[in-house]
Specification:
Elements (H helix, E strand, L loop, with lengths): L1 E2 L7 H5 L5 E6 L5 E7 L9 H5 L7 H4 L1 H7 L4 H6 L2 H22 L2 H6 L6 H17 L4 H5 L1 H4 E2 L12 E3 L10 E6 L2 E7 L8 E9 L2 E9 L2 H21 L5 H18 L2
Antiparallel strand pairs: 1-3, 2-3, 4-5, 5-9, 6-7, 7-8, 8-9
């Protein structure tokens, strides 16, 4: 079964316990991506692919074959996965609410021009807002409800204050994310999401960062862009620690990543 709406994030393949997904390409050099292919014969209708697809492109009731359609009539899976259309409607409703609130409260161009006039609390609020918007594109509505408890601010005394959100119970949200480099401590302990749809941004989660835990922020979605930002972050920390310079760039980096993402997300 070909899923033409697929954006090739491969989250379904990472999470599928039975390796049901492959990917179709066309053209002489196979450079033209056509879509994901679901093999219903191996599917056990667990619903992990549906829950974690960032654009809700998978409908097991229709694409998973007769066994899934039958199993979803009376089981718990049926309650969760029967209507992908309903999930799309819910996702669009969430996005509409987020964007109406954001655009009704903030003017992105004004914020960029007058960023130095903002308080750290205001920057933290906007960073959290963008993180919620990004998470809403890759999580089910039911999981978003728990963010009311798990997404928090760092204390004003924290080195991460106004730079990241604090995300507790991260395994509820980061399932299927890839491991990547974490500069503090120097290890491959960080997790990165697939690219957020229609943007060049990803969410990056640090189990530990600069002596704190559970940091979440938006990064630019290419290794070069993020690598440059990481080098500047290191240099800034060195100048701060050795010459008592002001820690400005890292604040602006995450703040502007949040603003730029919200521009794309809300088409403003």
């Amino acid at each position: 079964m070909l899923i033409e709406d697929c954006i090739n994030c491969r989250m379904c393949k990472k999470l599928c316990p039975n390796d049901c997904f492959s990917f179709a390409y066309v053209g002489v050099d196979y450079n033209d991506f056509k879509g994901a292919i679901l093999n219903p014969e191996n599917c056990n209708c667990c619903g992990k692919c549906v829950e974690n697809c960032p654009i809700q492109a998978i409908n097991l009731k229709n694409q998973g074959g007769p066994r899934c359609a039958y199993n979803m009539l009376d089981t718990n899976n049926g309650n969760n996965w029967e209507s992908t259309g309903d999930k799309k409607d819910k996702s669009q409703e969430i996005k509409k609410t987020i964007c109406e609130t954001f655009t009704g409260t903030f003017n992105v161009n004004y914020l960029k021009k007058h960023s130095k006039q903002l308080t750290l609390d205001q920057e933290q609020f906007i960073i959290n807002f963008a993180n919620i918007a990004a998470l809403s594109t890759i999580l089910s509505a039911s999981r978003l409800n728990s963010l009311k408890v798990d997404l928090k601010n760092y204390k004003n005394s924290s080195s991460l204050y106004s730079k990241y959100s604090k995300l507790d119970n991260h395994k509820l949200y980061t399932q299927g994310w890839s491991t990547t480099f974490n500069s503090s401590p120097n290890s491959n302990t960080a997790l990165v999401s697939p690219k957020i749809i229609n943007s060049n941004y990803q969410l990056k989660f640090y189990p530990e960062k600069n002596g704190e835990t559970n940091a979440l922020g938006l990064i630019k979605g290419t290794w070069l862009d993020h690598g440059i930002e990481a080098v500047l972050e290191f240099l800034e920390g060195y100048m701060r620690d050795t010459h008592n310079s002001q820690d400005d760039f890292l604040i602006d980096m995450h703040f502007f990543n949040a603003l730029n993402f919200m521009e794309v997300y809300c088409n403003v």
